[in-house]
Amino acid sequence: MNDLAHLPSGLADRLRAIVGDAGLVTDAHAREPFETDWRGQYHGKAALVVKPASTAEVAAVVKALSDARVAIVPQGGNTSMCGGATPDESGTQVIVNLSRMNKVRAVDAANNTMTVEAGCVLAELQRVAAGADRLFPLSLGAEGSCEIGGNLSTNAGGTGVLRYGNTRELVLGLEVVLPDGRVWNGLRGLRKDNTGYDLKHLFVGAEGTLGIITAAVLKLFPRPRAMATAMAAIDGPEQAVTLLGKLREACGDRITAFEYLPRICVDLVLKHIPNTRDPLSEPYPAYVLVELSDNADAATANATLEEALGSAVEEGLVRDAALASSDAQRLALWGLRENISEAQKQDGVSIKHDVAVPVSRVPELYALAGKALAEKYPDIRIVAFGHVGDGNIHYNCSKSERQAAEEFFRQAADVNHIVYDVVQSLGGSISAEHGLGQLKRDEIKRYKDPLELELMRNIKKTLDPHGIMNPGKVL
Asked: Could you tell me which residues are beta bridge partners of residue 392?
């Protein structure tokens, strides 16, 4: 069974001539994995899925769809948290999935860059960089399945932002297929290019609404020779921010990650994820996962972190700490952090927020949002964790009982406004690293400056006058 009847006559044959039988998915059952988001919150229906294998094929596919005025949903690893890569339910949109475009075109170790196609899986790019004795620092929980085109399109963050920045800071050049099928070749590996508007930044974070990223020149860094990782027990977010400041004074830019985990996160992971264990001998209210990376030897890195945490213990800021003494212990500590989302998914539905505030105001976010939510929903369960080092908190809300959580999920709009109003009052953003997608498309109208939205719409209209690129997302 297929839905080709929803397409203009002859279009499917034109697309088949471009990508071949291997590049078309028409059967309804075979399309299902492409039509549902990772969280299972968004379900759409596409006319078909096209899987081009080269930039030339992407350009020809987009030209054909543009000529027919058929809407395009760009897609990579389909790990969006906001429904940004899911079609609507009309059965008229075409998914253009770039997973077949997975070649590393070049590695330039002397220039500390690699040129890669959009369908490359993030973890594979990390391995390629390591093979050249370099580091590609973007790292996040979905790295085994997410693809770099999607990372770029959402300006993904991850755990290394504190030291290396968001994905936007990790890209030097792009290749993009525009909505009319033309190809902009901006694959320049330059760190200085002052020749006008920096067009690549239009497409990074645009969630496929302005064009399809097909390749990128990415920054590489010297590969760290040593990592020092510890889990430190603290009382709460205020202590986390204070500790971050002290560690930065003691360790400088060697701090690569600084992740905050309240106790409830650890409990959820222990409950749902096999082969996990409590990081310390007794439970504490909260923890921070700290990691240093250095080009010195491991003993020096560990001694630096141990000394800094020891001073914090003496001051009463840290209650206890565990320093990883092997790679296995390091991975076990990271497992507690990286499995929180999966544990939440297994535990039941929750209302998720990916928000950012200035680092100094993170404690206020916890205090004010928690108070406002508890006043209206007395038995609410708040699972708020994440990248305190850059002010990005995944502020998730649910109920402890599965049935109650499902009923509570229907209150999402009200819960969103409570959290987002607090975030705005603190000078923050309602989307830190997941994007807007469908989830926050309407919410952004409430919180973003009208002039900003007008400028965004004008850019969209200029590049995509027919509105065929990922319609219903972002704007």
From this structure: 356, 387
